[in-house]
Write a structure and sequence with these properties.
The complex is a heterodimer of chains A (about 325) and B (about 600). Chain A is α/β, with parallel strands linked by helices and about 325 residues long. Chain A has ten helices and nine strands. Chain B is α/β, with parallel strands linked by helices. Classes of the chains: A alpha/beta (about 325), B alpha/beta (about 600). Chains A and B meet through strand 1, strand 2, helix 3, helix 5 and helix 9 of A and helix 1, strand 10, helix 7, helix 9 and helix 10 of B.
Chain lengths: ~325, ~600
């Protein structure tokens, strides 16, 4: 006869330090929007001038503007410069392994539909080591927002070719210039089945904030590519998209039908620096909703039946 | 068959009372030979008997030679049996390949439509030929197809072993009912045809003695089923996996069943996504499960290292098969112990448990969840191909008492240090998102070495302290897990040590050895990492400690557990008996090899 030596105990919270009183029982509606002071955590370790600073600032702004509550924000990242993001945000967060942030965040989203799940990362994380997860998270339409800060280079490891590096880019791994065709993140996302696909730059903050809001409001997998300059290893990469540096910021025409997949795909081929705005947006059942329906259907005849009795029915059939 | 006592039966043929019997069914997997074994096992379970099965599966895409062995006993059944009392052979290859597994004087019941017996063996085994294929066709009205010959053969066995026909009929109706009514009619026609057949040349039938443990209600299932149901009973409501033999069955069951409990099981794009998603769900506040077999476990190791570092609870099921690489996917091996204990870069202590039986799979799954929660750590369950596919009957668990609620606690806290170094025994617990923290300081779960709040650090001092924290909590666990008990005398010549599914054969080897006057005892280690304390005291009563494992002896001559025990105890008495033939231990094999080694 088998036994269980380590039983299911009521487990005290450990690691709870200090003598602060438990939080005041304020109704959520009475809580004030979080200010930047309350949402900023560690000072970012990024290089001065890095494009990622503005994405972070906009995230603080988004939290404040949309009156998100501290405890319901979940910030997830993989590995890379931009993936240091969760440390800089004063909210629940996880800094996971390289390339797997989306898979981790999917687990959070599917088991905790009450949370706002945001994933931040870079081009290596998204399109190289994590390419498979990008495809399948999009295809399954898992409810979360994915912001990729694309700098066209591996920054944390100091200038190697990235999956979005343009042909001819000289790096430590391609001294003579990169020869591989770069990933087109917009095409990748649309063809994989993402239901919200947008593109912006770290320098056009108003545009990016609007896009982030729209992404957050989208019921499904929302993906934004943000051109975010690496001033150290690929300076000037996005000057062509910055008007004050002599570039242009071509916005997607207002009459573009965001539900038209072919039209969206065509936009992806616009000449450098490409188009900005919402390429594609459709509503398709999320994985979260599909799983919830499975549960509702499975439990239709089990209302009020305790779990052990459901299991007992199976065991009785195996007598 | 043991303890046979002949008695005259009214029909003129003899009826022998038996304690137990080993029946080996050999044929092709598409003939449904597993179904025959399954019915016999289930019948034994309902008849309060003990039962254990063993099967081989061809690793071909479809079909192929396969066997299913059932050992049914009115007393204790510890293994599927070394030798068969009865061989049911459907083809020439079944006959040729398995006749040697039959006891001398045993009965070979063969399909005379396909098998031509070997004249030279007629004197060694009792040959009984029945035209199973053509009689099956006849029994179901001559459609020209012999589909159903497995059920016909079940009827023959039912006659031979005087099995409980109403119970078997009910099992057939449960299995085939609900579909097209002609299906169940055909099945019953096949069964009755076999049962009613007058077997030429069989002068005796057998009757199982009344079992020792009458009155206990039993449940019959495979190891994979027991693991999956254990996970559900433990309160786990999220899992993720990727198909791989022999783990797939666990995920299929969880995918089917979890929604009934409000849970979800995700089939992911790959093994890495599966473990990552499960860790994400654990981070969400409720321990989640992932699993795989060897190749998939290799892929998961980086993420498991993260769970160690971030101190996130997680249960990982590894249904071991033969390795390395794709190896022998449908064979048994216990060669993933090292990857479970050590797999990963850096120092990443984790918990490893190995269930000993099908019943133990159910309880181990629950205990793994409890350990993961209590110690905020990943926990491996090392099952294997043999235990995964074998069927056993065990006492119906008290589910009302056993089923657990492990809902997350989102009560606001004043302040939280996720990696508090002053926590007793280094045990800190994850505070899940959704929990309000009054200080306004929120934790980041991280794979970078970190300070007490989870912020990255390059401090060697902190790395040393955190390594100690992650290690010390498992030392605390070591002090809480039970010290195993010796099977047999606590002193003697040889202590046979085993882990996982070899518990039964080792205990049977102890019985066999002692019956031959050998001073042999057995010790089963279920908690592989951390090991329980005080094992050295148990070893001290023996001249030799022989660790029996189904893995290779390695470069230095010792199997995987033996190597750990030798490193742990620096005891030269610890020796190793290993094998990698893809099959479970035979009782005699263990005893002979251990005694030869220690002569």
């Amino acid at each position: 006869m088998s036994t269980i030596a380590i039983s299911n105990e009521s487990l005290p919270r450990t690691g709870v330090a200090g003598s602060l009183p438990a939080p005041a029982p304020l109704a959520d509606a009475d809580r004030k929007p979080l200010t930047k002071k309350e949402t900023a955590a560690d000072h970012p370790t990024w290089c001065p001038g890095c494009g990622d600073f503005s994405v972070l600032a906009l995230y603080y702004k988004l939290i404040e503007k949309r009156k998100m509550l501290h405890e319901n924000i979940c910030t997830v990242a993989g590995i890379g410069c931009s993936s240091r993001f969760p440390y800089f945000v004063q909210a629940h967060g996880a800094h996971f392994i390289h390339g797997r942030a989306l898979a981790f965040a999917s687990g959070v989203s599917l088991s905790r539909p009450d949370l706002h799940v945001f994933v931040f990362g870079g081009d290596g994380d998204a399109f190289s080591i994590g390419g498979n997860h990008f495809t399948h998270t999009a295809r399954k339409n898992i409810k979360l927002t994915y912001v990729v800060m694309d700098n066209f280079v591996y920054g944390l490891t100091k200038k190697q070719t990235s999956p979005t590096s343009p042909i001819g880019f000289k790096s430590k791994t391609d001294a003579g210039g990169s020869t591989d065709r770069p990933v087109n993140p917009m095409k990748q996302a649309i063809s994989a089945g993402a239901t919200f696909v947008g593109r912006s730059t770290a320098t056009n903050v108003n545009h990016l904030l609007k896009l982030m809001e729209a992404a957050m409001d989208h019921d499904g997998f929302s993906f934004i590519e943000v051109l975010s300059e690496c001033v150290e290893f690929f300076p000037g990469a996005f000057d062509a998209a910055i008007p004050r540096k002599g570039g242009t910021f071509p916005e997607i025409p207002a009459d573009h039908d965001v539900a038209d997949e072919y039209a969206a795909y065509k936009l992806c081929d616009a000449p450098w620096p490409g188009m900005f705005g919402t390429f594609f947006k459709v509503n398709r059942p999320t994985k979260n909703a599909n799983e919830a329906k499975l549960i509702t259907d499975a439990r239709a005849k089990l209302t009020g039946v305790p779990d052990w009795q459901i299991l007992q029915r199976n065991f009785d059939r195996m007598k | 068959m043991s303890d046979t006592t002949a008695a005259a039966a009214p029909s003129g043929s003899r009826v022998s009372k038996i304690q137990e019997s080993v029946i080996r069914i050999a044929g092709n997997s598409q003939d449904g030979i597993q179904a025959i074994g399954g019915f016999l096992a289930r019948l034994a379970g309902r008849s309060e008997q003990e039962v254990m099965t063993f099967m081989t599966i061809p690793s071909t895409i479809s079909g192929g030679a396969s066997i299913f062995q059932v050992r049914i006993g009115s007393g204790e059944v510890l293994s599927a049996g070394d030798e068969a009392d009865v061989l049911l052979a459907f083809y020439d290859h079944s006959y040729a390949n398995h006749i040697s597994s039959l006891k001398r004087g045993g009965i070979v019941l063969y399909d005379s439509d396909h098998v031509k017996p070997n004249e030279e063996l007629l004197g060694s085994y009792r040959h009984v030929g029945v035209a199973i294929s053509s009689l099956t066709v006849e029994a179901i009205g001559g459609t020209g197809r012999d589909k159903g010959k497995n059920i016909y053969a079940l009827g023959l066995l039912a006659r031979m072993f005087d099995l409980n026909v109403p119970k078997l009929t009910k099992l057939l109706e449960e299995r085939f009912g609900g579909k097209d009514p002609s299906v169940v009619q055909n099945a019953l026609a096949c069964f009755n045809g076999g049962y009613g057949h007058q077997i030429q040349g069989l002068v005796e039938s057998f009757h199982f003695e009344h079992p020792d443990k009458s009155g206990t209600q039993q449940v019959v299932m495979s190891g994979n089923e027991a693991l999956a149901y254990g996970i559900i009973a433990a309160g786990v409501r999220f899992g993720a996996g990727y198909p791989i033999t022999p783990w797939s069955e666990v995920m299929e069951l969880l995918r089917r069943e979890l929604p009934k409990y409000g849970g979800t099981f995700m089939q992911t794009e790959d093994e890495i996504a599966a473990v990552s998603m499960a860790i994400g769900a654990s981070y969400g506040g409720r321990v989640a499960v992932t699993g795989s077999s060897g190749p998939g476990i290799s892929l998961k190791t980086e993420a498991i290292g993260w769970a160690v570092m971030a101190e996130m609870p997680l249960v990982i099921i590894d249904v071991q098969r033969g390795g390395p690489s794709t190896g022998m996917p449908t064979n048994q091996e216990q060669s993933d112990l090292n990857i479970a204990v050590f797999g990963g870069h850096g120092d990443s202590p984790r918990v490893v448990l190995a269930p000993a039986s099908v019943e133990d799979c159910f309880y181990t799954a629950i205990e793994a969840v409890n350990i993961a929660r209590k110690f905020s750590t990943p926990v491996f369950i090392l099952s294997d191909q043999a235990i995964a596919t074998r069927i056993e009957a065990f006492a119906m668990p008290d589910l009302q008492k056993i089923c657990q609620d492990i809902s997350p606690d989102f009560t606001p806290v004043a302040d939280h240090k996720p990696y508090d170094l002053s926590a007793p025994d280094g045990i800190t617990r994850h505070v899940a998102p959704g929990t309000r923290i009054a200080s306004g300081k929120y934790p980041v779960a991280t794979g970078l070495e970190h300070d007490e709040l989870g912020h990255p650090t390059g401090s060697g001092k902190l790395h040393t302290q955190m390594n100690a924290k992650r290690r010390n909590k498992l030392r605390k666990l070591a002090s809480e897990i039970p010290v195993p008990k010796i099977y047999g005398a606590s002193e003697g010549h040889v202590l046979l040590v085993g882990w996982g599914s070899s518990k039964g054969p080792i205990e049977e080897a102890v019985k066999l050895g002692r019956s031959q006057g050998e001073a042999v005892s057995g010790l089963h280690i279920k908690y592989i990492n951390p090991l329980p304390n005080d094992l050295e005291k148990l070893f001290s009563g023996f001249t030799h400690v022989v660790v029996c494992e189904i893995n290779d002896e390695g470069l230095y001559g010792h199997g995987q557990l033996a190597s750990i025990l030798r490193a742990r105890y620096c005891d030269p008495r610890i020796k190793s008996v290993t094998k990698t033939d893809g099959l479970p231990w035979k009782v005699k094999e263990i005893l002979t090899r251990a005694l030869t080694l220690t002569k």
